[in-house]
Design a protein that fits this description.
Layout lengths: L2 E5 L2 E4 L4 E8 L7 E7 L6 E6 L6 E3 L7 E6 L4 E6 L8 E8 L9 E4 L3 E6 L1
Parallel strand pairs: 2-11
Antiparallel strand pairs: 1-3, 3-8, 4-5, 4-9, 5-6, 7-8, 9-10, 9-11
């Protein structure tokens, strides 16, 4: 129903910032809650943040709360993840995903992007 493409990943030093973008190609974008997940080598994919279709409700993993901000521009079919005060533990492949419900649960998401690598050096 929706195709997603992430961009904005890269290599940054600890303490730095990075902004990830996710472009959606599909109709009814505003009807989907949008989430960000990440997966580091040897670890399971984990929830990072989610934003409701309207953009008014957000939820974050404890590990990123206060450092990351999720936002969206429905008119442009875009969702963002602003990452500040990055630490090496944030190093992972980051994915955006779309869900018909507001959820932190991996299985709730119907569509996934290809991901973008974020590497934080110390």
């Amino acid at each position: 129903q929706v195709q997603l493409a992430e961009s904005g990943g890269g290599l940054v030093q600890a303490g730095g910032s990075l902004r990830l973008s996710c472009a959606a190609s599909g109709r009814t974008f505003s009807m989907y809650a949008m989430g960000w997940f990440r997966q580091a080598p040897g670890k399971e994919r984990e929830f990072v943040a989610v934003i409701s279709g309207s953009g008014f409700t957000k939820n974050y993993a404890d590990s990123v709360k206060g450092r990351f901000t999720i936002s969206r521009e429905n008119a442009k079919n875009l969702v963002y993840l602003q990452m500040n005060s990055l630490i090496p533990e944030d190093t992972a492949f980051y994915y955006c995903a779309a869900s018909k419900t507001f959820s932190r649960y991996l299985a709730s998401y119907d569509s996934w992007g290809q991901g973008t690598q974020v590497t934080v050096s110390s």
